[in-house]
Amino acid sequence: MRRFLKLEKIIGITFRKKKLLEMAFVHKSYVNESSEPNLEHNERLEFLGDAVLELIVTEYLYTNYDQPEGELTNWRSAMVKGERLAEIANDLELGSYLYLSRGEKKSGGEKKNYILANTFEALLGAIYIDQG
Questions:
Q1: Which residue, among 56, 58, 57, 30, has the nearest Cα to 43 in the 3D structure?
Q2: How confident is the model over 15-50, as pLDDT tens digits?
Q3: Could you read off the pLDDT of 40-86 as tens digits, one per residue?
Q4: 121 assigned to active site
Q5: What Cα–Cα distance (Å) separates residue 94 from each residue in 5, 25, 61, 87, 99?
Q6: Which residue among 22, 46, 50, 110 is the active-site one?
């Protein structure tokens, strides 16, 4: 799992369960081509990470701003939308860690905003499970 050492350093987290970190970067398309038994893709981690992100942002806005609920909801929506998550994923160079099928690689999957946003959410899910 040496391939993730740089990322762990960038995010300031050393994973106890390295396989969990790796799973955050396994795209569904890769699983379809892989012969590795019991390989799991990142969609369940993405599902969890989405909820974790929403909770973190909600708590931050609640704690730091006195605006009414509707305004805070709009702010949260703007903060967690896919385009913004893809920007963060790009800043962290998450695309370079992705496991993609040959076809997805050919089509530039590591640069697609929706894949990057989903990967960022999967990484958050993995962090939540691994770090508590």
A1: 30
A2: 999 999 999 999 999 998 888 888 999 999 999 999
A3: 999 999 999 999 999 999 999 999 999 999 999 999 999 999 999 99
A4: yes
A5: 13, 8, 26, 10, 11
A6: 50
Q: Which of 22, 104, 110, 121 is catalytic?
A: 121
93 is catalytic: no
The answer to whether 89 and 95 are in contact (CB under 8 A) is yes
The length of the chain in residues reads 132
Rounded Cα–Cα distance for residues 111 and 11 (Å):
20
Q: Rounded distance, CA 77 to CA 36, Å?
A: 38
What are the tokens at 132? Answer: 């508590």
Give the predicted TM-score (pTM) of the model: 0.93
Q: Point out which residues pair with 127 in neighbouring strands.
A: none
Alpha carbon distance 98, 5 (integer Å): 14
